[in-house]
């Protein structure tokens, strides 16, 4: 067991060293592919993984180029990069046992964040020398641990494939951050005939390691989008009247978006997180760029916010005679875990002695694009759940000093294999 | 001369007693008509005076009814009231000498203001017992003096008609306040073939009585309008989301109207003078009513402001999903007096010994709908001017204690007759 | 039983005829006093009922004068009016049995609303001739029924006083609407040593008559206040720079109040219900008056909103160099009913056959100043609950056609007497 | 003459190649110094030129470092850089003839702009190979020509110094752009005893080369400043209430700054040219940075705008509980040229045959910190003027394709020497 634990820790640390932000996971995709290649899976890459046109929130070409060069330098073969270089990252692995049985799917997200990792002496990745080698990017949300869990599960299924039945689909998904990547996988059809769908997150709740939650409540539905106002510049001294002021259009939108009426039906959120406007002090600004998100306790409440937002943004543009473009970046619905899977998980892990506290559900209180996959599975009459593996968080997710309690890697791995075993017997 | 002076003062005081706000000048119109009836003029009333559809800023029916009853009580015959009762007030008097000569026109405005006259012991109309008998209405802008001047001029022309040549048109115009009445007279065509057009104001500049200005500069073009936002009410506790907030639409419009960019081409103004919104503390407001005006140093600058205002008001309505109505109230262009008439006036009054200081021009700095008449005259190749007869103002125009220096009545009367005489000889 | 039912209906209809808005309940107070006078209670009036300085949201003197004249005309003796004429309305009745036992208190609110009652043929008070005789005022929230219940309970206690123990305090409270009156009673100390406190509302939930809820959840804490901005007027054409614009200060406050950040801890509300600003189109507005309310799921959440509101209002005044006054109008905390009293009520009414459906709690979702009394009782270690007596609502509370289902009068009366009897045996 | 013309063109092109933005004119200062060194002037550098603490709008240290390295590479000696490296750039050259006579001063501004010069084939500096070698910086306002004129004047005075009388002060001033540099020279006292002060601009009015204006009207007084709001970040989903939103503070300031009331006394301007706020979509923004300017037809009107701006900015910070810092960047008063110098210039150039059209004054309509020098000279009873040397502008000042009509170099040079000669004879 100690050996397995070490193996998992090594895998996680390897991925921790080369975090890549969403849709640029060229090295990550390659390393996952390399790990799965020797096994009995059919592997899918590039346009076979996702529907290119359904991706949102893609980075600029210059980012792709930089990541390409970095991957070449790392040693990813040029032929491999052909599959992924335009942002078609991620791997899907399928295995058909040939025996009748359920279709089991699991999803592991693989992207890093645009955060510069702390080099503080108190930060273990620094002192134990597995800190990010990609300056300005970091696995600050634990997706390195998710990859690790997924690869272990893949090996386990491969190893026991003669004792298993039905079909297995393991999804290593790009660009979960800003809830951008799931949609393109869903639209490709991968979730259309899944019977049991599992996914999970390490951490989140600040509870002792050993705690497992069989399901999750309180996903906030969310829409992420950018807004670009385009007006007309003019000399601010000579003829301010000739300008169509984009800075004012943006300011007006920001204020009024925050004034959207609260909803009697439940919690809602709005945020204009950033705004960049104008080119010079004595010029009427002819550009403003805003990054915005709406949220709601339900998909309907989020939709209420997004609809109001669109109205307000258009009116702000009209008021200052600007053109305006709303650029979709990401989207996640709310979701409800299947009660049957809560019971199944609880039964499955009955004898798992890594678990010290087993809960039916814990609250999430944020957004995850896995909800888009869960929604499709449920629509197609499958069942879905999202588990949590909490640990004591010294620094929260997305913090430059965030770190995994690596003991949860083994815990998570064991829970997934327990579930597979249980479903084989009880489906 | 003392006799004439007294006669003018008596006339002015008679009109001062029954001020009537714009388009309700039923008694005033009747008294002017009565005074002109015995003379050689052709008189025009009602729809012959103005184009009904071109009037703006009409009062409510209830105001018409109240004024009707008041006029009946005063003694205006019912048959006469038929001409004016729907707001078609004012009189036009024409006289054709039958001899070839120029077409001379003059305009005198006749309406009072919705101001309650002061009953203070220091206020002469109170102590000398000619204070307004119409509570809440007052001749606080001197139009009682303008009527007086006009009636004197009418008598003078009538008396000397055998020595005169050409044609005369005397316009006693309704509803100058809020620049509402002139347009409907212009649209009727009365100014289309005028050769010489004169009008004037008593007071305005705070200079010694005896000062005369042959012309006026710095008329501000102006547009007056009301805005009514109509939204949807909702319980502010239970479902604020269900409302379309008119109070916020109005507030938004007010702020952004004030933020219209200054114009490099000259002075502009905007004011939202009043706003009334909402029905109760715990209800989302479903109504907002705003009284607004724009101004500009030129007609184009005022138009710039009004165009921007319309855009902003529509966008404010859109932002809070309100319907909106823009209700025109009044309009005045800018104007430039004809240089030829400055010379003519100066020549004409050369021997007028009531004048102590004769100026080419003085600045107005406000709006007057006479500019609409001047504009038409100039377009048709006539000449026009607007004279000022200043006096020392203890209280400004529109103040509850405003009063005329009655010595200017004779001055103004004498200047008008000098001009008529001059034009007869020099045209 | 039919006789009692009729008696209750008659009482309710009597009070329905002369609704009086908060702090002007001169006739109402007199009639309650008259009804209690023959009984064994000690009665308190005027400054003995409430702490004058703790009242908020008082009407203008002119309203007091009008109500005084009306009461005189109705037949209220001048000597009696001395107690109430300055807004010190309401009655408190106490009875000490002389035997050891608990202190029982109940509160009945007595004010009407500034709503004009419907004269529609479908409206029973119209057709059965007990419609409001006070034009513009109406018992549209059922407080006439509350008074009725309270008076019946008073009679019942009086009648059985020899079989009862402990002390009784019956509070007929003024000015519940806009949550204004309770505070002044609490500050007088009346709730400081109460063991069991009961209050209730007729209607609210739209459920079949016969339903009783032993307690109520989801009171929204609320603060009601007015805001008066005072700036400086100036001529909008001549020198707009000289003004301090109150209309803009008010507009700015309204927009930014609506933009107060949502709270992660639960529901909040804000509403600027009305705004009146400015005096004329061409004058910079020097006054703005706003009616505002904040709410929160808890007292803390409401306090968060009110604190933010104060900051914003001050800053809006500063931005346009206005003075500003925040005028408190009313206040209600949230409240939680005592679990022990839920059990007590359920036991007490076990054999009450008017009840068809007995519930532990129902949700309120609005604000009530009774929460201020409950808070004080709980602080002093007493127990408190607030019951609901729903019926099927054709028109909601505060609607011009609101009407009571009069069958609930007997139901409510019987529940209160059941409770008194139960407490006598079980305290 | 052709030789002189060529010499001037060469000098101008040399300076055109190494434009340096305000306070980083290390190479420029060195080259001016080198040119003056052989002459009879006393030269002042560094803290002798300006009062360090009176400078505003200094660049970051990193900019100084970059410019230092660039100057080293260019060949400026380290010892020389000691004088200027902390932003104490510019040169002052004085010459005392020893003979009684007036104190003549002239000012030439030397800085470039942060604009990338056009490499278009139609742009002469590109095709004739004197385009800026400093990417992102450009002499797009003609200061290269100003330096050229100043150096020629210096040589001329030096050469004829035995025929001249009185004293001469030639000011090569740093950082005119954004009106930042003049103040520090004035505060050092250099303008305190000047009798005749001359300065000028090439271009500005789009008139045929050969036109000279002896004076300039319509300088706009202006204040340039930056504003930094500092709030508090918070997770926009979890607890938006915990943030103090700087993006909203900035937006609010921008809107309300534009709503400052127009001034009855004359033209005013305001512009928020740029705003940068926030760090991420799902974080409440805790920083906003705005670049702002106010202007006014007079110093008082500009002061009115700046005072209002300060009030609004503070209130915007208060409204969203932000700290705020107002960072001065530059300042220029208005100015009026001395009538006596208009006459003097006209007399002086009477026989100058480069001039095709001589005007008393032309309008400027923008801001120049030379006005701060003129103001000091006039206060001390000296006389001052600012001349214009228009030419036909294909592209306006500050445009990436702006270019001088090099024929005006000789014209300007000749006018300055004419003036010196005239003053010698006529003072």
UniProtKB/TrEMBL annotation, chains A, B, C, D:
Top-level lineage group: Bacteria
Protein name per Swiss-Prot or TrEMBL: Aminobenzoyl-glutamate utilization protein A
Xref: InterPro entries: Amidohydrolase, Bact_exopeptidase_dim_dom, Peptidase_M20, Peptidase_M20/M20A_hydrolases, Peptidase_M20_dimer
Originating organism: Jeotgalicoccus aerolatus
Gene3D superfamilies recorded: Zn peptidases (3.40.630.10)
Domain annotation Peptidase M20 dimerisation: ranges: 224-317
């Amino acid at each position: 067991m100690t050996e397995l634990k070490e193996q998992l820790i090594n895998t996680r640390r390897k991925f921790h060293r080369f975090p890549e932000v969403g849709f640029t996971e060229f090295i990550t995709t390659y390393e996952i592919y390399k790990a799965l290649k020797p096994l009995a899976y059919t592997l899918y890459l590039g346009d076979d993984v996702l529907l290119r046109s359904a991706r949102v929130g893609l980075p600029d070409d210059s980012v792709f180029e930089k990541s390409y060069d970095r991957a070449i330098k790392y040693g990813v073969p040029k032929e491999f990069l052909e599959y992924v270089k335009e942002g078609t990252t991620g791997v899907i692995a399928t295995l058909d046992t040939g025996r009748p049985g359920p279709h089991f799917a699991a999803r592991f997200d693989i992207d890093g964040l645009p955060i510069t990792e702390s080099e503080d002496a108190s930060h273990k990745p620094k002192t134990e020398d597995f800190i990010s080698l990609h300056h300005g990017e970091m696995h600050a949300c634990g997706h390195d641990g998710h990859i690790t869990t997924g690869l272990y599960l893949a090996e386990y299924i491969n190893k026991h494939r003669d004792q298993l039945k039905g079909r297995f689909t393991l999804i290593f998904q790009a660009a979960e951050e800003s809830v951008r990547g799931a949609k393109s996988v869903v639209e490709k059809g991968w979730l259309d005939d899944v019977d049991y769908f599992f996914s999970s997150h390490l951490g989140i709740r600040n509870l002792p390691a050993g705690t497992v939650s069989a399901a999750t409540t309180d996903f906030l539905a969310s829409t992420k989008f950018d807004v670009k106002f385009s007006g007309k510049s003019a000399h601010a001294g000579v003829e301010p009247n000739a300008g169509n002021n984009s800075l004012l259009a943006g300011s007006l939108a920001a204020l009024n978006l925050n004034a959207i009426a609260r909803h009697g039906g439940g919690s809602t959120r709005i945020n204009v997180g950033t705004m960049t406007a104008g080119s010079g002090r004595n010029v009427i600004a002819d550009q403003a760029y805003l990054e915005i998100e709406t949220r709601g306790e339900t998909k309907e409440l989020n939709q209420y916010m997004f609809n109001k937002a669109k109205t307000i943004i258009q009116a702000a543009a009209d008021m200052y005679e600007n053109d305006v473009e709303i650029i979709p970046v990401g989207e996640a619905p709310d979701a409800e875990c299947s009660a049957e899977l809560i019971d199944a998980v609880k039964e499955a892990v009955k004898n798992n002695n890594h678990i010290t506290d087993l809960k039916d559900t814990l609250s999430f209180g944020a957004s995850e694009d896995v909800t888009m996959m869960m929604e499709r599975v449920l629509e197609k009459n499958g069942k879905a759940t999202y588990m949590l593996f909490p640990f004591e968080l010294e620094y929260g997710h997305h913090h430059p000093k965030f770190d995994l309690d690596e003991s949860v890697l083994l815990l998570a791995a064991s829970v997934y294999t327990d579930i597979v075993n249980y479903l084989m017997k009880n489906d």
